[in-house]
Amino acid sequence: MFSGRYGPHRDELYFVTAGQHLAWGYVDQPAFTPLVARVVSTLFGDALVAWRFPSALAAGAVVLLTGLIARRLGGDRSAQLLAGSAMAVSAFLLIVGHMLSTATFDLLFWTLISFLVVRQLQGADPRGWLLVGLVTGIALHNKTLIAALIAALLLGLLAVGPRSVLRSGWLWAGAGIAALVWLPNLAWQASNGWPQLSLARAIADGSSGSSQPWWLFLPMQLVLISPVLVAMWVPGLVRMWRAVELRPVRCFAVAYVVLAVVFLVTGGKPYYLAGLFPVLLAAGAPLVVDWLRRRSDARAWVSGGLGLSLLFNAVLMLPVLPVRVLADTPVVDVNYDAGETVGWPAFADTVAGVFAGVSRAEQTRTVVVTENYGQAGAIDRYGPERGLSKAYSGHNAYFDWGPPPDTSGPFVVIGFDEDFLRTVFADVSAAATIDNGVGVDNDEQGTPVWITRDPRGPWAAIWPSFRRLG
């Protein structure tokens, strides 16, 4: 219903371009999401609804799996429905289910692996560990963060058991399958100097637009799903630790605590823990259902809580409001990603206007250089219809796709500090300022656009100074 409103997110623009440069890995991610972007953009062109359809399917699968986990954890039909409904109205699922993102598929893989592991720990055919390994190997081609889940679960098994699982040859055979499936990306990382380690350090230092101060990490756990649903997942966490019938899966409670500490200490983003919320909601749902059956007024409280969560989260996380009033609301302050879907056509219009001011004799050699991958992706998406050639950027994987040719120039440069540009070019002049036209204070609003000439050396020499990770 809302997929086509506003516009593409900066990450979506980047993924589509990355999909045109398929590789076993990139400095900031493995290949899964760019591959999905390549498929949908090849089949459906620039249709934004089509770009986001795989994410909607993934979100639906997360809801279904949450209900299935609730069944494995002793929930009846009512508990399964409640767990799935709670996940469906959660803030994090609504936002990642609305856009093409590594986080979308990461949430799906965390939930699927959690379901499979719960099933194995409850006594399923031990050969099922082979499937766990296969899914883990595929998940590692989307985001290496999944390795943290596996490590935390293993630590949980060592700490609270059942340790007998660790003696299963099938488990270690599954681990071998995961490593084998992951090997192409692992080899790419090794041959390129392990760039994702450098990226992780950059994110920990706050270089990502979605990074948060460390002291917000724990409070954000209360709002990632919904403040109302804290009353379900916190009891679920306690139940996983204390309930005798859940003793085989107690390692999930340990994993949550371990990962919370690790991500807090290492500067991880608050949403890194979101992949465990389906399990915690599934564990808490039977407790809420029991409460419903003991109190005559409880149904109204639960229905109201879910409805309030849906209303609150939908307004904040989905493009429900008209874009013209967005700047007058707290939406962008709460939901950074909403702002990053606004203003890209106007952005491209401004750049095209600067390009049009260059003499006709120079236009054939003029190229666009951007400070970040969102800007570059927008030029690659909207530029051709405005007479612009492809963009160059030193941000993340764009850096690896190369600098402008030495025969190019002048340069329409977007962003950067003037002092930096004067160390790179002999001639720098301000040309325009980005304005999205609706007053939304996003990363691009107020960004300067420059015309530069005469690089102070060949691009091979100056290109490293443009590199940025985050």
From TrEMBL:
Tagged with keyword Transmembrane helix: yes
Broad class of where this protein is predominantly found: membrane
Membrane topology recorded in Swiss-Prot or TrEMBL: Multi-pass membrane protein
Subcellular location: Cell membrane
Sequence ranges assigned to domain Glycosyltransferase RgtA/B/C/D-like in this UniProt record: 28-188
InterPro entries in the record: LipidA_mod_glycosyltrf_83 (IPR050297), RgtA/B/C-like (IPR038731)
GO molecular function, one term: pentosyltransferase activity
Top-level division of the source organism's lineage: Bacteria
Transmembrane segments: 49-70, 91-117, 129-158, 170-188, 214-234, 246-265, 271-289, 301-321
Keyword terms, alphabetized: Cell membrane, Glycosyltransferase, Membrane, Transferase, Transmembrane, Transmembrane helix
GO cellular component entries: plasma membrane
Keyword Signal (UniProt): no
GO biological process, one term: lipopolysaccharide biosynthetic process
PANTHER family associated with the record: MANNOSYLTRANSFERASE YKCB-RELATED (PTHR33908), MEMBRANE PROTEIN (PTHR33908:SF11)
Protein name, as recorded: Glycosyltransferase family 39 protein
Gene source species: Antrihabitans stalagmiti
